[in-house]
From TrEMBL:
Name of the protein: L-2-hydroxyglutarate oxidase
Any GO molecular function: (S)-2-hydroxyglutarate dehydrogenase activity
Family of the protein in this entry: Belongs to the L2HGDH family.
Keyword Oxidoreductase applies: yes
All copies of domain FAD dependent oxidoreductase, residue ranges: 11-396
Cellular compartments per GO CC: cytoplasm
InterPro entries: FAD-dep_OxRdtase (IPR006076), FAD/NAD-bd_sf (IPR036188)
A Pfam family recorded for this sequence: DAO
EC number: 1.1.3.-
Keyword Transmembrane helix assigned: no
Cofactor(s) for this UniProt protein: FAD
Alphabetized UniProt keyword annotations: FAD, Flavoprotein, Oxidoreductase
Phylogenetic lineage: Bacteria, Bacillati, Actinomycetota, Actinomycetes, Kitasatosporales
Domain of life, per lineage: Bacteria
Length: 402
């Protein structure tokens, strides 16, 4: 990509215009005014993938291991996100949520969540069946906890605001096809349109494609993104649910199970289940990209997941292929729901980092290379935690710029 004297187009190139990439740009321009930041997004606008295809929950941080990045950034990020939305007129509400046990076998896990919530500094109230009905008359359970700091917002609108307010140059339709990094010089990228941009540091916030971008820079991330599609329905009778209702999650998986979420638009999302996607952006079973699928299958960790968790996966697959099976799962929490109450809605894809041995990366994962910072695992609750994540990445970038 050319030699000789370097003329930098910017100080920092950020790859990815989702909420994390835009938060990084926002944090950089505030921490170091005058820093020239360019965000490159392959789509025609921001937040087209994980950011804009989730249930809009502002997570409290109750699920995450005390001291982990997820716990620290979600707990602080939830309050910060509410404040951000209020200051900028973005639709949001602090609703609280119920985590409901429907079987006695779930009670030890529910009690563990109470303890974890307290360790993370989150106010938690324990409820019996009658108290569950006070919050959610149509929900049934034998015990529950109420988490008061959970909320909802429009993350797409948050990303739009960040794109305009960050002070960065945001370029859309700018898919990266080549990266050239040279010691002492910086990083140059070429887009599919043939544009070449040079920066001193590259920040990889490419979400579903972050492992590919890392390898394009010459860094081996020691993980691969294995995409899992989350399939949602909307509730035709939204009056059945007042707020947010979750099952007790299985700690062996990063997925929270089929839950009920009233959004800022008043509609109720039901889901998601989690099935392997056949493409990085495989929002439907019909979307198959053989090269991407082959790369997933070539990663040893994919086969390790299948061996360890095939029973869990079979249940998720059954619920994907059978609406009746999905309805059965919902009825555990909401007995009055019928199959015809569930109307198909847009799916999302979770960019789940998986190690070579099949370990599902549980925490946010940020790695540094020469003149590069890679955000390699930032699925939910990354939207909730996006402002703290942005500051953490910006801190590392500014240390590199020195």
């Amino acid at each position: 990509m050319g030699r000789g004297a370097v003329a930098y187009d910017c100080d920092v190139l950020v790859v990815g215009g989702g909420i994390v990439g835009l938060s990084v740009a926002h944090a950089l321009t505030r921490a170091a005014p005058g820093t020239r930041v360019t965000v490159l997004e392959k789509e025609a606008g921001p937040a087209r993938h994980q950011t804009g295809r989730n249930s809009g929950v502002i997570h409290s941080g109750i699920y995450y291991r005390p001291g982990s990045l997820k716990a620290r950034f979600a707990v602080g990020g939830a309050a910060e996100m509410v404040k951000f939305c209020a200051e900028h007129g973005i639709a949001h509400e602090v609703t609280g949520k119920l985590i409901v046990a429907t079987d006695r076998a779930e009670l030890p896990r529910l009690h563990s969540l109470v303890q974890r919530g307290r360790e993370n500094g989150i106010p938690v109230r324990e409820l019996g069946p009658a108290q569950i009905a006070e919050y959610e008359p149509d929900v049934r359970g034998i015990a529950a906890i109420h988490v008061g700091t959970t909320g909802i917002c429009d993350y797409g609108a948050v990303a739009e605001h960040l794109a305009h307010a960050s002070g960065a140059e945001v370029r859309y339709d700018a898919e990266i096809v080549r990266i050239d990094r040279r010691p002492g010089i910086g990083v140059a990228v070429r887009t599919a349109r043939g544009d070449v941009l040079r920066g001193k540091v590259l920040v990889n916030c490419a979400g579903l494609h972050c492992d590919r971008i890392a390898r394009m820079t010459g860094d081996e991330p020691d993980m691969r993104i294995v995409p899992f599609r989350g399939e949602y329905f909307t509730l035709a009778r939204p009056e059945l649910v007042r707020g947010l209702v979750y099952p007790v999650p299985d700690p062996a998986f990063p997925f929270l199970g089929v839950h009920l979420t009233r959004g800022v638009d008043g509609g109720v999302h039901v889901g998601p289940n989690a099935v392997p996607a056949l493409a990085r952006e495989g929002y439907d079973w019909s979307v198959v990209r053989p090269r991407e699928l082959a790369a997933t299958l070539a990663w040893p960790g994919s086969w390790q997941i299948a061996r360890r968790h095939w029973r869990y996966g079979a249940g998720e697959l059954r619920r994907s292929l059978s609406k009746e099976a999905f309805t059965e799962a919902v009825r555990r929490l909401l007995p009055g729901v019928r199959a015809d109450d569930l109307v198909p809605a847009a799916a999302g894809v979770r960019a789940q980092a998986v190690l070579r041995d099949g370990t599902l990366v549980d925490d946010f994962l940020i790695k540094e290379g020469a003149r590069a910072v890679h955000v390699l695992n930032a699925p939910s609750p990354a939207a909730t935690a996006s402002l703290p994540i942005g500051r953490e990445v910006a801190r590392r970038v500014l240390a590199t710029l020195g």
